[in-house]
């Protein structure tokens, strides 16, 4: 999608601070970090929201978590703990409509989230 920020990153039109990339997934540091580690893990294929997922996407979504696991290990937060969040639609705080898994860590996390 030409008007999608994360598709532009996947296409190389915008260069994020990439921490992981393979043929299906890109992970990069959030421009406005909410924790010492704040990485966004995105599928290279455009999917707007969780509501747009179908059964064929199950493996791809699982892979986002495997990449999150690697990102956490690389940033040294795997053992102390980290949070993964995927917001769905504006009411939950989604502002970029290309699904992405937030990986947050490096500070204590409160519950429930706001
Ligand atoms: P959402 O609010 O959709 O769950 O998360 C979108 C995230 O994208 C936000 O945390 C925001 O800071 C991040 N973001 C927005 N624009 C950019 C950008 O141009 N570069 C990077 N690296 N992150 C961005
Ligand atoms: Zn997109």
TrEMBL record:
GO MF term list: catalytic activity
Annotated motif Histidine triad motif, positions: 98-102
Pfam hit, one: HIT
Active site: 100
InterPro entries xref list: Histidine_triad_CS, Histidine_triad_HIT, HIT-like, HIT-like_sf
Domain HIT: 5-114
The protein, known as: HIT domain-containing protein
